[in-house]
Amino acid sequence: MKFKQRQTAETLRKNGASYDEILKSIKVSKSTLSLWLRNITLTDEQKKILYTVPRQKNAYNLAKINQNKKIQVTKAILKESSLEVKNLLDNKLFLSGLMLYWAEGDKSEMIEPVKFTNSDPLMIKLMIRWFKEICEVPEEKIRIALHIHELHNKIEIEKYWSNITGVSLEQFNKTQIKESTIKYRRNMLYEGTCSIRIHNKNLFRKIKGWKIGFQKYFNLMPL
Known about the structure:
With about 220 residues, this protein is an alpha+beta fold. About 15% of the residues are buried. It has a domain of about 130 residues: CATH 3.30.1330. The protein has eight helices and four strands; from the N terminus they run αααααβαβαββα. Strand 2, helix 7 and strand 3 form a beta-alpha-beta unit.
């Protein structure tokens, strides 16, 4: 019985059948089948059919499933957060932070980053409070990225922004240092730019929903 099954499996394999296709005809374990067929070499054309096409098809199907899931999740978040706005309009912190993010925050739809960049320490301090109190982001989820010139003292600048944001230096990304052609700092008050970053796509969608809700409330939606 096993001998006939093996012969059948070998014939099917030589004709370019996949393991899954063979297992539909022969009731053995996949490990046994692998042992029987390990010395059978497929042609390049058979390999192309067996491996390349199915993998591309499976990858495409998985991508479509993930895309549809993302669309549904995004729609739900946008709808819910846009409806929240009318109950938040009296909250000055909510409004000020939303307006600042609308003006200065990252709005890239492709990667959906939550990122706010500015050089004004008071504005950065306000947005840190907004993310914590309004967006309910835990402090340990906040990351800080700095862009400075080579004329800056990197260690001192990092300490400065850590004090401003209240975020530990351990949560700072690598500071980006820009080369400078000048030999002295022209603006001694300039402490580089600080970027608040939060890796949370759903928060990006929620903020977008708030913006949509605000625009609808004040009839600002584009025609």
